[in-house]
Design brief:
The chain is an alpha/beta fold. Helices cover 43% and strands 19% of the residues. The protein folds into three domains: 2-33 and 405-514, no CATH class; 52-125 and 160-234 and 334-398, FAD/NAD(P)-binding domain (3-Layer(bba) Sandwich), CATH 3.50.50; 237-331, D-Amino Acid Oxidase, Chain A, domain 2 (2-Layer Sandwich), CATH 3.30.9. A seven-stranded mixed beta sheet has the order 10-9-8-2-1-11-17. A seven-stranded mixed beta sheet has the order 6-5-13-14-15-12-16, sandwiched between helices. It has a three-stranded antiparallel beta sheet with strand order 3-7-4.
Length: 527
């Protein structure tokens, strides 16, 4: 009886997904047919495509200044320079970064690397292929594979040391003659009558310079000191990550990321080299972060976390704790809040952040660069700041399918995966695990969303509420009860309370009805 009822629920969900897919495809066709007219209405003609020789003869200064040479900055520098732009990149510290996040690139992000022509940057850094996830909960586990059947065999996720990847990206960009990569700290934007003309910066020797360009792109990361000049940031810290490296550890599923639905919040494991496994223990913001210095953190990891780690890797986990190289970092979340400014653009983590649970940050950044490249590629002259600003406002809508899907999923999954004493929340968490366990469309759909392979907001909403409906079905089978019905109502209400605020912050209109969003709007400037 239970199997039959689950089958009926499954058929209903598949029908819902079919409708959503049809509506989404219809919407995309309609939207694309109108896009060119909108962009042309900004006063810039798409037929003005120029070649590299035309670009090089415009002036002696750079076409674009890029602040920051992380993943976003280095990739953008190479991409624009390959199109013939003269690019000046200013990075605060050109030594190899040492971070505990930014180490997992989803398959959707790898496809963007290929599209940008920089997929070789994951070579020669001992990067590991990632083909799916293992999900663990209270002694049960499931294996979830990326739906990669339609792609070339080289396409998969990649995990690596973040610093090695960034250095390869920087070297790739610096190999082009029209890229100037310089170490320095940008202290301010140079503005004139509301238009950004360039930047003021200090070199590593303390010398101060000003450099001018028609377009300045700020992508100086989550600690950006220029962010407030270009947007209205609302940064939240939902949790902290505690980072460890396990050595010579064999994970239960080779070439997979591992998510343990622990109490109070998830624990992640994934390989970052042929001999190292990264472990990230999430500590919710409401809980006090134990001190590393006085040994509280080591005690917490051994007594609270270790018993919830799969037995196969528990000894390696404890050994990593005993080794003592424990690091922490705050997880930041910030919806994209554009404030279009003539002469400047904000991208990367300086502009938009999400909980790193799903490892989607680099995928969003690389997707944004593809969108920006395609918008800038046809333009011969970037010097009309007002028209360029109006034109580039299309960027904020065109980026939404990928960015809003990954951002919303990251925030929603984190809230669902965290433990809670609330019975309705427990049922939602259990329903999510069991829904993914069904396999087929029930696992492939969510994993395609998470991996950036199918960035469709409507599909995300359909699957999220399909999980909730499935959870209600579990409560009412085989015999409905008043308690089960009330718990089901609370489950649906809780699901709505999780996802709708995230979508509202992302922008409901841009997410679901981009064709209704003007490509630009008039701005008044003080003359």
């Amino acid at each position: 009886m239970v199997v039959i009822d689950q089958y009926i629920v499954g058929i209903s969900i598949v029908s819902l997904l079919g409708f959503v897919l049809f509506f989404s495809l219809f919407r995309d066709v309609k939207y694309k047919s109108k896009r060119k007219d909108r962009l042309n209405s900004a006063g810039i003609h798409l037929e003005s495509v120029r070649n590299s020789d035309e670009i090089s003869s415009v002036s002696d200064g750079p076409d674009v200044i890029i602040v920051g040479a992380g993943v976003a900055g280095a990739a953008l520098a190479y991409t624009l320079a390959k199109d013939g732009r003269r690019v000046h990149v200013i990075e605060r510290d050109l030594s190899e970064p040492d971070r505990i996040v930014g180490e997992l690139l989803q398959p959707g992000g790898y496809l963007k690397l290929i599209e940008l022509g920089i997929e070789d940057c994951v070579g020669n850094i001992d990067a590991q292929r990632v083909v799916g996830y293992g999900l663990f909960k209270e002694g049960k586990n499931i294996r979830l594979s990326y739906p990669l059947e339609q792609f070339h065999s080289d396409v998969s996720g990649r995990s690596f040391h973040n610093g090695r990847f960034i250095q390869r990206m920087r070297d790739k960009a610096a190999s082009l003659p029209n890229v100037r990569l310089e170490q320095g700290t940008v202290t301010s934007l140079l503005e004139e009558k509301g238009i950004v003309k360039g930047v003021h910066y200090k070199t590593k020797n303390g010398e101060e310079f000003k450099v001018y360009a028609p377009l300045t792109v700020v992508c100086d990361g989550c600690f950006s000191n220029l962010r407030r000049s270009l947007c209205s940031p609302k940064v939240e810290v939902p949790s902290h990550f505690v980072g460890l490296v396990l050595e010579n550890c064999q994970l239960p599923y080779a070439n997979h990321g591992h998510v343990i639905l622990a109490d109070p919040s998830p624990v992640l494991f994934y390989p970052i080299s042929s001999t190292e496994v990264r472990c990230l223990v999430d500590v919710p913001a409401g809980d006090k972060l134990p001190s590393i210095a006085n040994g509280e953190m080591a005690k917490y990891l051994k007594t609270v976390v270790a018993p919830q780690v799969p037995a196969e890797i528990r000894d390696s986990f404890v050994a990593a704790v005993d080794k003592g190289n424990i690091r922490t970092m705050p997880n930041r979340s910030m919806p994209a809040t554009p404030q279009p400014t003539p002469g400047a653009l904000l991208i990367g983590d300086a502009f938009n952040m999400r909980h790193p649970l799903t490892g989607g940050g680099m995928t969003v950044a690389l997707s944004d660069i593809v969108v920006l490249r395609d918008l800038l590629r046809p333009l011969k002259d970037l010097n009309d700041a007002d028209s360029l600003c109006h034109y580039l406002e299309s960027f904020y809508t065109l980026r939404k399918p990928v960015a809003s899907t990954i951002n919303t999923l990251a925030g929603a999954l984190y809230k669902v995966f965290c433990a809670s004493p609330d019975e309705a929340h427990k049922e939602m968490r259990e329903a999510c695990f069991d829904y993914l366990s069904l396999g087929g469309v029930f696992s492939n759909g969510p994993i395609a969303l998470l991996s950036g392979l199918n960035p469709r907001p409507l599909s995300l909403v359909a699957h999220f509420f399909a999980v909730a409906i499935y959870g209600v079905g579990r409560l009412l089978i085989p015999f409905p009860s008043i308690k089960g019905l009330w718990l089901g109502i609370r489950l649906l209400s809780g699901a709505a309370g999780i996802i709708f605020p995230i979508m509202k912050a992302e922008g409901l209109r841009q997410m679901f009805f981009p064709a209704t969003v003007p490509a630009y709007h008039r701005r008044m400037h003080v003359k």
